[in-house]
């Protein structure tokens, strides 16, 4: 009888050890999938039916490391331009903390990641569970390979998604374009920002997706952006 009790206790301990190990491995696997740099693609209502060009554009880039996340937002739109704090990702829930030393004071960048795949991250707004924000994972191959790519004070022909227009970067915060959308707003002076984030050279602009500067050959700059798919395009300097 005593041997049977000891055997049961041993089996119970073994079960709990295996359970704890499984949970640790699951947590590590989840965090491993989340690690890396993700750039905003579009935001939509969960009840909407999306086409390739639907959704509201927004400008954010976020990098998840082992315990910390770093969020960079478009300074002309968002209240908090840069945030770096601790986070937890467990059972499909992402918790980010306002203060890394205060684990009782947290807010969620998103809740119920739906789903976390190899190259897409969807964060559902915790309040109401209605808004969904879609991010695309950035591969290191998109990091800028060219030095001294200048934009300020220059004009470019933009060939983007089978459309051609002109961009003029007046200074480090204002640009002018010739797109239909800018004409519709009756305001051709729009804001832009260039930022370096974990080796990625990124442009935030009003009314469009974030751009990733990759390289330059001659007078042509090669860039990428993400909607439902990756879009490669160019800016060619007007001399």
Please give a handful of descriptors for the protein shown.
239 residues, alpha+beta, Lipocalin, 8-stranded antiparallel β-sheet, 8-stranded antiparallel barrel, 44% strand, globular, disordered N terminus
Walk me through the structure.
- The protein has helices spanning 2-34, 180-184, and strands at residues 36-45, 60-64, 68-73, 82-90, 93-97, 106-110, 120-124, 131-137, 155-160, 163-169, 174-177, 189-197, 200-205, 211-217, 220-226, 230-237.
- The protein is built from 2 helices and 16 strands.
- It folds into 2 domains: 34-137, Lipocalin; 141-237.
- It is globular and about 55 Å long.
- The chain is α+β, with helices and mostly antiparallel strands and 239 residues long.
- The strands form 2 sheets. It has an 8-stranded antiparallel sheet. An 8-stranded antiparallel β-barrel has the order 9-10-11-12-13-14-15-16.
- Helices cover 16% and strands 44% of the residues.
Summarize the structure.
The protein has helices at residues 2-34, 180-184; strands spanning 36-45, 60-64, 68-73, 82-90, 93-97, 106-110, 120-124, 131-137, 155-160, 163-169, 174-177, 189-197, 200-205, 211-217, 220-226, 230-237.
Number of helices: 2
Q: Which bin fits the share of residues in helices?
A: 10-25%
How many extended strands? 16
Low-confidence stretches: 2-29
Pattern of helices and strands? HEEEEEEEEEEEHEEEEE
Specify the CATH class of the largest domain: Mainly Beta
Shape: globular
Please state the structural category: alpha+beta
The whole-angstrom Rg is 23 Å
Largest sheet: 8 strands, antiparallel
